[in-house]
Specification:
144 residues, mainly alpha, 6 helices
Length: 144
């Protein structure tokens, strides 16, 4: 499966993280562990802020939210709310370290330490399994 040319799709908004009508984006929207495992730090920060703006601020600047990205934004908002209880400020900006060390790993540890069956904790457990698979299959980046 591959991405479609997003700009040519109906309802495209450049702020969208996952775009309706793109088979790859729609698949990632249905499989959040895969989406989280393949998102780069820049897109993650944009999605983090988009989720904050949508759910905390109800901001019109968010624009049209695609059906493909809505589950991702819901989970990222849930993670922000959980991390707030552990001292991470709720301000629309992910902590200034890499995604894996700043957000996903602490959130995964929290989710794995609980028997909670909410959607966010279940997605985090699945994301952990997917991240482990990616780490075992994908070659590491070359040092800059």
């Amino acid at each position: 499966m591959s991405h479609s040319f997003h700009e040519a799709l109906d309802g495209f908004d450049p702020a969208q993280i996952l775009v309706d009508g793109c088979p790859e984006c729609e698949d990632r929207g249905r499989n959040l562990p895969v989406a989280l495992a393949h998102i780069d730090d820049q897109r993650f920060a944009a999605a983090w802020k988009r989720a904050y703006d949508l759910y905390a601020l109800d901001s019109p600047s968010v624009g049209r939210v695609s059906d493909a990205e809505k589950p991702l934004l819901e989970v990222l908002w849930g993670i922000q709310c959980v991390l707030q209880r552990f001292g991470v400020p709720l301000n629309g900006t992910p902590p200034q370290r890499t995604v894996a060390t700043a957000v996903l790993l602490p959130a995964i540890r929290i989710a794995e330490a609980t028997t909670c069956e909410c959607g966010c904790c279940m997605y985090l457990r699945q994301a952990h399994q997917q991240l482990e698979r990616v780490a075992n299959v994908c070659p590491p980046r070359e040092a800059a």
